[in-house]
Design brief:
Layout (H helix, E strand, L loop, with lengths): L8 E5 L11 H10 L4 E7 L21 H14 L5 E9 L5 H9 L5 E5 L2 E2 L2 E2 L6 H7 L1 H18 L4 E2 L17 H14 L2 E5 L14 H9 L4 E4 L12 H10 L4 E6 L2 E6 L1
Parallel strand pairs: 1-2, 2-3, 3-4, 4-7, 7-8, 8-9
Antiparallel strand pairs: 5-6, 10-11
Helix pairs in contact: 4-5, 5-6
Length: 274
């Protein structure tokens, strides 16, 4: 799955600063070059601004002290690789209900190319951590999916994000959305459409227990039908994962009816044919 890409972009890439990824940032860029990409967006995890303490879990996200160095290294790599590949400054920013003002301050401190919006914190705990699969048995799959989609719709409406990530993340460990929540999913799709936010088509799910891209084919078809634009991503946490599964997600996008994808510069979108 490491062949050259027609779309040539990867808009979801992490670094070792988040505490659960590995490899030098330069190695990610070199892999992107080797795999035919024209753009790579570093989008490491925002510091955990919504939990108590200065840095409550450095194994999940950058610390506040690491954020300036992250920005500086992306800028240095952008200059080093200029003319060969575009290196973009991005952030994966968790949406946390009630903490929107704090996140807005964090985002205002730097000039980002793209900001990804994610929902990981659902009903007081993570929805995608190694222990999260057991939450479905304890708390109920319907409850968790319903709250996830409620929060995702709120995230879209804030206007803080350019792209919503892994639109159906609660399926990660194999717990599919219950049929009773079709309306909740539709509301989240409508919120994305109304906000003008894009969604990622991500190969990360192909590496998880669910063995399926994010979003699932029927959901991706619904998003495309509603006019929600897409970007391509790998959610890479190691250099070898950059552009991983690209042919599969491009095929999924085409099958869903997508005929273009987006890139970003300073949070302004550009459209490209598939």
């Amino acid at each position: 799955m490491a062949t050259a890409s027609r779309s040539g972009t990867d808009y979801h890439v992490h670094t070792s600063r988040c505490g659960h990824a590995g490899g030098e940032m330069r190695a990610y860029v070199e892999t992107a070059l080797a795999r035919g990409l024209r753009e790579i967006a570093f989008t490491d995890h925002v510091p955990l601004y919504f939990l108590p303490g200065d840095d409550p879990d450095p194994g999940i996200a950058m610390t506040r002290a690491e954020l300036p160095g992250y920005v500086e290294e992306v800028h240095a790599l952008r200059e080093e690789f200029a003319g060969r590949i575009d290196v973009l400054l991005g952030l994966e920013a968790d949406y946390a209900e009630g903490h929107e003002a704090v996140l807005k301050e964090i985002l205002a401190a730097h000039e980002w190319d793209v900001v990804l919006g994610s929902v990981h914190w659902v009903k007081g705990d993570w929805i995608d951590a190694p222990h999260s699969g057991a939450r479905h048995e304890r708390e109920g799959t319907e409850v968790l999916w319903g709250e996830y989609y409620r929060l995702l719709a709120k995230a879209a409406a804030t206007g803080l994000f350019d792209v919503l990530t892994h639109f159906d993340l609660p399926k990660k460990f194999g717990h599919r959305r219950p049929a009773s929540l079709t309306h909740a999913e539709s509301q989240a799709v409508e919120a994305a459409r109304a906000a003008g936010v894009a969604v990622e088509v991500s190969s990360a799910g192909l590496r998880k227990a669910i063995g399926e891209e994010y979003p699932a084919p029927p959901l991706l078809t619904s998003l495309v039908k509603e006019g929600v634009p897409i970007v391509f991503s790998s959610d890479a946490h190691a250099p070898a994962e950059v552009a991983w599964g690209r042919e599969a997600i491009e095929a999924a996008a085409l099958a869903a009816g997508a005929r273009e994808h987006l890139s970003f510069r300073k949070r302004e979108r550009r459209r490209h044919p598939l």
